[in-house]
Amino acid sequence: MENALIEKIKSGNDHAFRLLVEKYRTYIFHTVYAVLRNQKDAEDAAQEVFIKIYTSLPQYEKQGFKTWITRIAINHAIDMQRKKQRSREDIMETEELQQDSISLQLPDTPELLLLDKERKQFLQERINELPDNYREVIIGFYIMEKSYQQMAEEQQVQVKTIETKLYRARQWMKKHWKEDDFS
Prior knowledge:
Layout: H1 2-10, H2 14-36, H3 39-56, H4 65-104, H5 110-129, H6 132-143, H7 148-155, H8 159-176
Helix pairs in contact: 1-2, 2-3, 2-4, 3-4, 6-8, 7-8
């Protein structure tokens, strides 16, 4: 039945696509919800998944339709999750920059200079605790303020490799460091 439905969709039959959506709507929603854990995000993702399924149908090669749409749904949900995570990190970085600019306006008293020196020393010690492959990307991105592209060119790797290293470095820090240590 699915193969006939898919062939009708490929030939431009919109009603056939509606039937396909009806058949898999709940399944796709539950699949993306399992990753996103948010009803509104899962609803949005499910709609986007069906658009991806529709546009990708010409590449479908009859190897197990449910497995194929599940892979599309999970990959899309993971991409959405990553985008949300990045935007949260961007907001946090913006807040930190605002906080830094506020602290820059304060007069430099001996106490503040000493606290700043101690904080820098503490951060340096923490950075030295990082595994070598993580330390390089943390210093490059956060301290030297290099872009992913710059670091990828310097290390002669793909940008995606830098993104992965930075993600893993953040995960390592979350696992091994307490947030209270940095307050």
